[in-house]
Request: fold
Amino acid sequence: MNLSSPRHLFTFATRANASPRHLSVSQAARRSLCARASHPVTANSRPLQLHSHRTPLQRRPPHAYRRFSLTSFRSQETTFTDPTRADLFYHLVRGPAHLRNSGPVFAVSFLETPPSSPESDTIIGWIPANAGDEAGLNDFEENPKFLRLLHTAVSSGLHEGIDDIQINGATQLQEGWMHIHDTRNVPALGRIGDPDDILGSVLVQDSKILADTYSPMPSYRVCTADGVPRLTDGLAQRLRDVLAARAREEETATRS
Reply:
């Protein structure tokens, strides 16, 4: 699954100098992954609790996986930048406790520095490094602790008014509930985005965002066929700041 650009799957080489590669997703697979919502947004709309139906990509049989030892990477580069998205990084680490049987994994992150722990809150999710030539959507393991930091960043960014796009959206809406969309899949004009791509909703009054009303959307997914989160500029910078601060806290705790 390509976590950076739309409508792709990731593939990983399992050589000592492995790095991410890409494979296209079929039209049928994309249709099965996300059900599109097509209801117009109105000024008086309440936050929608939408649900989508998915048919996960079928896992490969056990014999399709190739195993290798993390020791083969000791003399090689173990952090890779996504070739199509400079803010996305893959760190080769030992699997977290709940994935221990899978061996080494790629920790997907917005931070260039490797995490202090495979269980770091700053990791978006994990992809098994021994998944053979292809890693599908089913292979990505979301980190629920990252999702909490993501919503913290969005909420604080709205409170401080650091994102011009959200401010302009509130000015245009004037009154009602405004959705905060993940821009990896921007909805058509006048339509609600895919429920997987709505981070949350916030109330707007007199063209002003009432940040205390920000409500996360339960149906939001960290990783879809369109990739991992891609926020508007102000919120994206706030997310990086929040993640960097959390990484420093974790590093300090590790050393103490």
About this structure: The CA atoms of residues 16 and 75 lie 9 Å apart.
